[in-house]
Amino acid sequence: MIKPKDTEKLFISMNYVRNILDLVDARGGDGHGALTDAGIGSDVVDDPEAKVCFAQWSQFVQNSVDEIQDPALGLYLGNQLSVMTHGNLGHAVLSSDDVRQALDLAIRYFETRTPLVSLRSEKSADGVCIFFEERYLLGPIRRTILDATVSGLTAVVRFLTSGRLRVKRVEFACSAPPNSDLYTAIFECPVVFDAKETRIILPLSIFETPLAMADKNVRDFSTRQCEDELEVVAKSPSLEKRIEQILLRFKGGFPSFEHVASELALSPRTLRRRLLECNTSFATLLDGVKYQLAIQYLETSSLSVQEIGYLLGYSDPSNFGRAFKKWSGQSPISYRDKR
User: Fold this and answer.
1) Of the candidates 243, 276, 238, 278, which has an alpha carbon nearest to the alpha carbon of residue 259?
2) How far is residue 53's CA from residue 176's CA, in Å, rounded to a whole number?
3) Is residue 34 predicted with pLDDT exceeding 50?
4) What is the mean pLDDT of the chain?
5) Distance CA 132, CA 200 (A)
6) What pairs with residue 202 in β-bridges?
7) Alpha carbon distance 331, 226 (integer Å)
8) From CA 245, how far away is CA 252, in angstroms rounded?
9) Where are the alpha helices (DSSP H) in 14-168?
10) Distance between CA atoms of residues 70 and 61, nearest Å
11) Distance (Å, whole) CA 192 – CA 198
């Protein structure tokens, strides 16, 4: 039986805690009560270096949702964040030459703001897709985190283009909430749920738009600061976690062992030896990632068990059922029913 990879060693920066507290208080809740009940002292609120463990952060977010009695906390938070609340990354983005450069910087340095989600872009027939890739199993705060990151990036791009940018479509890899109309109102475009991946589609036409506050000196300085922050972030994950994050990025179309080794700049032989030193293997890590994704789909989407199996690379639903029972000790249907 596999235990899903947890977040015991993950620490979260308190970057946006002040924004959450203000939001909760403005909506009639007790922000500091939500903080205290999560075991977080108020002294960390204004400390830019402060970090708390993931369990505390997750409890704080859940408490905040309960305080305002509204599951759309993430949407409200992301939509009201200004560019300048994003620290050095905000300065770099704001001083970019055009929208394309601003988005390139946002994608490269997004993990300096949160370790929970990373970004990547890809051109398609529709335009440019920005993918939001979950790097950990987020549990009960998954929707809030996805809502906040997607609406936050959308708000930044809208601000940079003085409202001229209209997102073509937003897709969430989770089930539709009861307040789905609110998503359409906030994003001002079609919103799709139960998608394979969480992403926004932007029109190519806006990418060459010059930015009014372009400043090479400011951008270069802020980018250097972001590089320093990213270097600190990059040092933290273990080899196993780095492999898991690569696999999570690919989801159903999982890459080969050789491909993962090349991404890590290691030979397959060296990677195999280092995994043995960690008392694990590539197959074990791959099973763990499949289990994480299976749980996530079962808990946060309305996809059928058969569809989930297909997304994880199982052409035969019975094979997925057997694999899940080996991992968890129960069938996918039993797991979902108990949840």
Assistant:
1) 243
2) 29
3) yes
4) 88
5) 8
6) 128
7) 45
8) 13
9) 17-26, 31-37, 54-68, 73-80, 87-94, 99-109, 142-160
10) 12
11) 9
Q: Which residues contact 84 (CB under 8 A, 6 or more apart)?
A: 90, 91, 94
Higher-confidence residue of 273 and 124: namely 273
d(CA 334, CA 339): 9
Instruction: Report angle CA 177, 123, 241 to the nearest 5 degrees.
Output: 65
Report the alpha-carbon distance of residue 47 to residue 14 in Å, rounded: 8
Amino acid identity at 332: P
Once rounded to an integer, what is the mean pLDDT over residues 60-83? 94
Can you tell me which residue has the tokens 């203000």? 22
- What is the residue whose two structure tokens read 């993931």? 54
What count of other Cβ atoms lies within 10 Å of the Cβ of residue 315?
Answer: 8
Confidence of residue 71 (pLDDT cuts 50, 70, 90): very high
pLDDT band at 119 (very low <50, low <70, confident <90, very high): very high
The shares of helix, strand and coil residues in the chain, as percent rounded to the nearest 5, are 60, 10, 35
Residue owning tokens 């074990």? 284
Domains of the chain: 1-70 (no CATH), 71-236 (no CATH), 239-338 (1.10.10.60)
DSSP code of residue 125: S
pLDDT higher than threshold 50 for residue 4 = no
Residue-level pLDDT at 43? 79
Give dist(CA 24, CA 30) in Å, integer. Answer: 6
Question: In the chain, where do the E strands start and end?
Answer: 11-13, 51-53, 117-123, 128-134, 169-171, 191-192, 199-202
Q: Which of 37, 81, 27 is nearest to 62 (CA)?
A: 37
Q: What is the pLDDT of residues 37-69, one digit of tens each?
A: 999 888 778 777 788 888 899 999 999 999 999
